[in-house]
Write a structure and sequence with these properties.
There is one protein chain. The protein has 108 residues and is an alpha+beta fold. The chain has one domain: Histidine kinase-like ATPase, C-terminal domain (Heat Shock Protein 90, 2-Layer Sandwich), CATH 3.30.565.10. The chain contains 3 helices and 4 strands. A 4-stranded antiparallel β-sheet has the order 1-2-4-3. The chain is globular and about 45 Å long.
Length: 108
C-alpha cells in the first residue's frame, strides 16, 4: 500500500513525464527506501500539511485526490516503527524517504 501510493503520487506530479527513482539501502540494522521524482514539487506551505487527513495539494484539479493517501502511508510506516520524511523543491521534484530499524529476531 505504501509503495503503490507513493508511486501514484509521483506519477500525478509528473503529468508531462519525468523520472521516478526508487532506492533501497540496508546499512547495519536500518533499511531506507527513497522515492524521488522530477515532478512539480510541493510548496513549503503545503508540505507542512500533506500528512493531514483530507488535505490535498490537487484541490481544484479535475482528478483531485481525497487527501487520504499520505496520512495512510504515514500511519502504516509508523505501525512498523518506521519514520517518513519529505524534501521537495517546486518545479524540481520531491523525495519521500522511509526508514525502518530492523527488529531483533528474539523479540518477534
Amino acid at each position: 500500500m505504501i509503495i503503490i501510493n507513493l508511486i501514484q503520487n509521483a506519477i500525478k506530479a509528473m503529468p508531462s513525464g519525468g523520472e521516478l527513482n526508487i532506492e533501497l539501502k540496508k546499512r547495519k540494522n536500518t533499511i531506507t527506501i527513497s522515492f524521488t521524482d522530477t515532478g512539480c514539487g510541493i510548496s513549503s506551505k503545503d508540505i507542512q500539511r500533506i500528512f493531514e487527513p483530507f488535505y490535498s495539494t490537487q484541490q481544484g484539479l479535475g482528478a483531485a485526490g481525497t487527501g487520504l493517501g499520505l496520512p495512510i502511508v504515514k500511519s502504516i510506516v509508523e505501525k512498523f516503527s518506521g519514520h517518513i520524511s519529505v524534501k521537495s523543491q517546486l518545479q524540481k521534484g520531491t523525495c519521500f524517504t522511509l526508514k525502518f530499524e530492523q527488529m531483533d529476531k528474539k523479540t518477534n
